[in-house]
Amino acid sequence: MRRLRRFYINIRTDKNINTELRYFTFQSISSATNNFASTNKLGKGGFGEVYKGKLVDGQEVAVKRLSKTSGQGIKEFKNETELIAKLQHTNLVRLLGCCVEKQEQILVYEYMPNSSLDSFLFDPTKKGLLDWNNRFVIIDGIAQGLLYLHKFSRLRIIHRDLKASNILLDDYLKPKISDFGMAKLFGINESEANTSRVVGTRGYMPPEYLIDGTVSTKIDVFGFGVLLLEIISNKMNYTSYDVDHPLNLLGLVSYI
């Protein structure tokens, strides 16, 4: 935990990082989430749970409480604070601050009132709320966010886990890419690398990455292509065999 505190201090003193990154006390986070009440819980992922919170100034936030048992928790914490703190784009979720206290690793983000894209696409009661103009804006916004990550930001970043549940929607259904815990940082002149640790979500990863561990912007481009199909069709790309869905979304496209 001391190492994490030193890490946070280094972040705050890095002149290349947005100095608006704020440190929250555990007490303030606990109070904002009603002591992490189940009624405030927004969701749960591999790295921890996310809660809705309200700061003393009235600002609504999303609080990601990283799991103490997850071996990837510290890596995600470092990835998020190192990378997102340096990024500023309208189609990327904004990291407001963090908390390292009482064996806790907590990340605080801007709150997205319309949850994530998957909650609209794959919910029969909500998918009709997205008209074609909404869908175009969402597709364009995701593309703009990726273009910024790959080409126009001060860093070159491969997200590696682009999927509908990692696309958050604001009040106006405009998209923001979230969850950079698996992101890979590239050097300015670096275009490809190899890894023995393949991370991401099956169904959104290209074959060369799954088989050979080849890391490049093509990972995100492939994921974007799958997302595009899901947004257009309202169908999920199933990643395992299902008797009711013998072909996944990519298989159906190939079949057609």
From TrEMBL:
Give the residues the record marks as binding ATP.
Answer: 64
**Annotated GO MF terms:** ATP binding; carbohydrate binding; protein serine/threonine kinase activity
SMART domains the UniProt entry points to: S_TKc
Q: Tell me the membrane topology, using the record's own terms.
A: Single-pass type I membrane protein
Which family does this protein fall into? Belongs to the protein kinase superfamily.
Q: List localization entries.
A: Cell membrane
User: What SUPFAM superfamilies has UniProt attached to this entry?
Assistant: Protein kinase-like (PK-like)
Task: Write the protein's name.
Answer: Protein kinase domain-containing protein
Record GO cellular component, one term? plasma membrane
Which keywords does UniProt give here? ATP-binding, Cell membrane, Disulfide bond, Glycoprotein, Kinase, Lectin, Membrane, Nucleotide-binding, Receptor, Serine/threonine-protein kinase, Signal, Transferase, Transmembrane, Transmembrane helix
Q: What is its main location?
A: membrane
What sequence ranges are listed for the domain Protein kinase?
Answer: 36-256
